[in-house]
Model the fold of this input.
Amino acid sequence: MSAPDDRAADSNKCIFRVIARFDAPVTQRLLLPARVYLPQRRVERVRRLEKAFQKMRIVLLGAPGSGKGTQGEKLVAHFGIPKISTGDALRAAVAAGTELGKKAKAAMDAGQLVANEIVIGIVEERLGQPDAQKGFILDGFPRNTAQAEVLDAMLVRLGQPAIGKAVHLAVTDEEIIKRLLDRAVKEGRADDKEDVIRHRIKVYNDETHPLLDYYEQQGKLMTVQGVGTLDDIFDRILGVLK
Ligand code: ADP
Done:
């Protein structure tokens, strides 16, 4: 990226953060009254970015280890909207020894999916919170077609706009296994053992991969190559979110 592009991206980032924090349309409530002081093209730019925000209900799709967590954090920093990770929420519940954690642990350790009603409850509770009203990034949910259908109905029930885009991080199976074995050494996650990893990839291919069709049919699927530097991948994601 050249320096002027960097500056434009940085200033978009600031505007996005204001949009995410403000509970009314920024152009109407903040900028229009101040228009005397702002050039029209500035107001137009904010309006354009605010429109882009209507798509900021993003599902991240991709095999375990495809980089959803890492890229999701970069999206959080860029847009100022929260990331909801069912994997993180479940690991926290296991670590805290809650009832929910106890129910989830065996399935997680075996690389199986946790029961739909458990993860659906986690997501619904989180999506109802104030910081998720302007947009959110879902990481690890939905993970099967039933969850995707429940999610769509849940957004209607919560009075929120539908999912805007599903971003698929495409990475080969060999690369996935390599990354997860690497992570096993660094982080020591209980489910990063080779046989469990292979099983998680199978579960992904059998249950989660069909979701690509689900979102493709709705014209929402954006596939991004998930290999390269973190910044390059992130730029590709920003490109498909425009
Ligand atoms: P990864 O993407 O590396 O497989 P996650 O952190 O997303 O890891 O999830 C870890 C585990 O948590 C999964 O293997 C599964 O047992 C459970 N889990 C997470 N999200 C869901 C979900 N939406 N539905 C069912 N189980 C889930």
